[in-house]
């Protein structure tokens, strides 16, 4: 796969993966020593199983498919099933693929580990809505262990979530597996991906899109974890996805970079429950890497050779390494940071949050360059979004770049603040010291209260309080 997580990863566990879909069963045999008729030039066998009576002839091989709804009889299978027979110890000794064997216990250990990360798996996947884990016991009966599902709804929607009361523990019914369609959320971002997502027409549409028309969307996502005893845990997120501009867009649309298939998409998932807070980095699937930010971030990152982290500065002396590192920096600054700013803006519209919005700002002392870049760029985007509240005009939300900040801990400032409010200047009070200092440090405020600022204002404009004239409503007006 593109990210090193494709089908070939199945060879970690098996030498003979099997794929069943429609009316065909495909048996792959890279060694060309196990499957009858397999050759080095054609290492496998495709069987049309309709009316072939395979389960009777080879019960050990084909009976397990029946437990998942496919009898390999007279009807097509309306889905796709992949079976990975575990590599035994004796097979591992002969294998040219891997010398590592797997037992039932090691497989159970893998499933148990997966359970600990299952809540994160579906966070940014576009076409997978539910994962169910069953065990097939010696009686050929399925025992449900747990399932995790994702449900989307439009931002601000009221009432219960879609399918909130629908059971998710019985996906396997009599007959074929009952399939569910992908998560239903559709928005402007999807229009760019119609057809070939990395073809020339995609990049033509992308480069022709005005900067202020680049797609973005924001939606709510609920992850539901269901245990075998019926217990359900729910984790809610607010997710922002954008197509970024700037240098990331330029790199993606540059014909010289076409082989990299760059897409300047960035997503941020902000937790709506305290239990959801994490700082994982995703390339659609979660990476072991952590950013140190209070949100989960996702993009079409270039990954390190170990697939454990994003590529950044590793072997950047080479031209390819420089391009890959430059891409990650650009997509973080132009797409991920923009998505981050949009999710902070949307948070202001949600009442009764269990996670204080202040905790979602990147106020930590970050150590790794990629995420420092995200932090810096986030504040530049935040500078031009109505994220702070002025005491003017019934506490209107304005851009920090049009506001005057001040330190409420400065006892001398209160009278000056009242004076400036009478002059109709949009003074804003940020109670949290860390956020206020961060906004000030990153140059987000249009000005910060000081003797010099007050003297400069009155020198240039004079006082109009006595004349009762109205100065411009606020610095929102250019």
From TrEMBL:
Pfam families: SACS. GO terms for molecular function: Hsp70 protein binding. InterPro entries: SACS/Nov_dom (IPR058210), Sacsin_chaperone_reg (IPR052972). Residues 1-140 form the Sacsin/Nov domain. This is Sacsin/Nov domain-containing protein. It comes from Aureoumbra lagunensis. The lineage of its organism: Eukaryota, Sar, Stramenopiles, Ochrophyta, Pelagophyceae.
